[in-house]
Amino acid sequence: MTTASTLFHDSKQHFEILDGLRGVAAIMVVLFHVFEIFSGGNHLIQIINHGYLAVDFFFVLSGFVIAYAYDDRWARMSLGSFFKRRLIRLHPMIVMGMIIGAICFYFGASPDLFPPISQTPVGQFLLI
User: If I label 24, which of 33, 59, 83, 119 is the partner at 20 to 30 A Cα–Cα?
Assistant: First the structure.
């Protein structure tokens, strides 16, 4: 009996430059959001003015990488198998990102934007 991991081994050429470009695009988006606070709401003086465009670039590159990786497997792979492989690969990062984001949001000093968050018990915050 063959499993999905042995049936679909990675035999394609790996383009490291595309991984690098996706990494640069992801860093540009993060820097855009980090430096956004220093612009004071004026997008004309923002340090990385069009960093949000890196999101589109990241998605285009990711679409190419996924299509290239799976193009010869579609005849042997079901849609459910594809989604299972993507879920197994991405879900741990999504959960970790949610946990880190929730911790940063909860302990962030924002009495003006979210006044009740500082008085909310941690258990109730996690439940929400």
Answer: 83
Nearest to 17 by CA among 65, 59, 63, 73: 65
Q: What are phi and psi of 63, to 5 degrees?
A: -60, -40
Task: Please report which confidence band the pLDDT of residue 9 belongs to, taking 50, 70 and 90 as the band edges.
Answer: low
Residue 2 has pLDDT above 60, yes or no: no
Dist. CA 39–CA 63, nearest whole Å: 32
Higher-scoring residue by pLDDT: 20, 112: 20
Cβ 73 vs Cβ 8: under 8 Å: yes
Asked if 57 contacts 77 with a C-beta cutoff of 8 angstroms, the reply is no
